[in-house]
């Protein structure tokens, strides 16, 4: 009985610790002594995102949708600008709560929202990794790497919509993974709808490019998780309707329907607004910039070339290789990783380790833009 309580306490304490770590990481933002307090740096965060958030918060607190923003140029659409993110649930609830309390939306509250997103990233990643690995240590490492790695702590800390859109990825994958393990059509539909709702939140967060990446990853993961399950679940089915109700494609359609349907109030006006923006004129040359090939060294050396968006740390990379060999049952050797990956791929039944290795490899290639062959092909 005592050991059971100990395990349950550990199961609760670790996620709570992971959720609290971002506030320790950014403790200078909340230092009680004003002399010790720091603020996030001046830039797009203070000159673009914060003014947009103030505008939306004031309009919502007054009981109005922020349809028109008179404070930019001679005025421009408010709600249609995805970066306003007025209907993103966290922004919406914050604005309504502050309006009810008759409090202004201050920069300190804005910083609190940003740090809270890192807590969400840690919790969602822990939950997803705990589900697919069954191990607290592995889940804790995954949560730390995603939350405090170079990707989220570099550029997205200042470009808040990137951060807000990206943190929902592990929750979407968590729900899709749970969904793929279900056998009843009702549970399948419920899980897919919930994953679609989480995808909609990522879209509402205000950064379409990042939301598209989340969407691509969700589709790839669903295909990976259901290609084997669909055969086993459909085997022996007599009723054609039963086969249809168990087909992964049906639930992929449900996922897309809920994702786009629940976020249509944002992306439909944004689509029209974008046609009249300066970004409507951009071409392939503008959008194909990526990392220079030599910047791959920042995978291991943070800040060597200024930024560290690729940095994940040496220890996590070593643990990833060890986990791959352990899961495949291979003996550690120089070519073990590559040989095992090829063998799994030839059998058309990729392990989880191979799926994530392939995902990381493709993402890394694409991140170099037109400096390498992958991006032009894509």
The chain-level mean pLDDT equals 85
In total, the number of strands is 2
Radius of gyration: 22 Å
Strand content is under 5%
- Biggest β-sheet, characterized? 2 strands, antiparallel
Describe this structure in words.
There is one protein chain. The protein has helices at about 1-25, 45-60, 90-100, 105-135, 135-150, 150-155, 160-165, 170-180, 185-205, 210-235, 240-245, 250-260, 265-275, 285, 315-330, 335-345, 350-365, 375, and strands spanning about 70, 75. Residues about 230-240 and about 330-350 have low confidence and may be disordered. The chain is mainly alpha-helical and about 375 residues long. It has a two-stranded antiparallel sheet with strand order 1-2. Helix 1 (about 1-25) runs antiparallel to helix 4, helix 4 runs parallel beside helix 7 (about 160-165) and helix 8 (about 170-180) packs antiparallel against helix 9 (about 185-205). It has 18 helices and two strands. The termini are far apart.
Outline the secondary-structure elements.
Elements: H1 2-25, H2 44-61, E1 68-69, E2 76-77, H3 89-101, H4 107-133, H5 136-148, H6 150-153, H7 160-166, H8 169-180, H9 185-204, H10 208-234, H11 240-245, H12 248-262, H13 264-275, H14 284-287, H15 314-328, H16 336-346, H17 352-367, H18 374-377
Antiparallel strand pairs: 1-2
